[in-house]
Write a structure and sequence with these properties.
about 200 residues; alpha/beta; two-stranded antiparallel sheet; globular; 6 helices
Length: about 200
Amino acid sequence: MRTFVLRARSAPTDSEKLMAEVGGSCHTEILAHCTMNALFMAQSHREDTTIHLVLESTQDYSRTVTINANEMTQVGGFHEAALLEIVRQALVASAGMTKEQTRTVQPGVTVRTISFEALLKELTQTHSVYMMDKKGDSIRDITLADNPCFILTDHIPMPKKTMSSLKRLGVEKISLGPKMLFASQCITLIHNELDHQM
């Protein structure tokens, strides 16, 4: 299983605000771009791939929208609007949830009121977790472990205290090269590297 986690610190958990911020300062379109590159390829979808979208701009609890390619039965299209609609529906479904609850939105899509930190603690129990960092080891120089999980962020950098927590959890830093890339571009390059290694 290939797993991706996008920490979208500026993404609103309010469904209307989410859609209103497409192309705005919160850059909520990144959610669609990352979902597209994580789960789909030309004329097909990637099996055994999951993406967790962690939306953190909230008045109560973060929302983690999880999309599992193996279990999805309907997408509504492979364009930005259709993929954002999946996230919007998940946020609508999450109304009234209390801390660390889970709801199924549709086959292959769930929404949880779980923080990024709590999610990562869970994932490190079952995955080899990697954090994108320009100062990390080159992805071309290491052999990626089975069941890898890759952490990415939106345009807001990961806080220093989070980086310390990730280090304590055994998360490895890896680099895709000297240039700063969009999270969605990172996902494409990671898939390509895994396709060659496995």
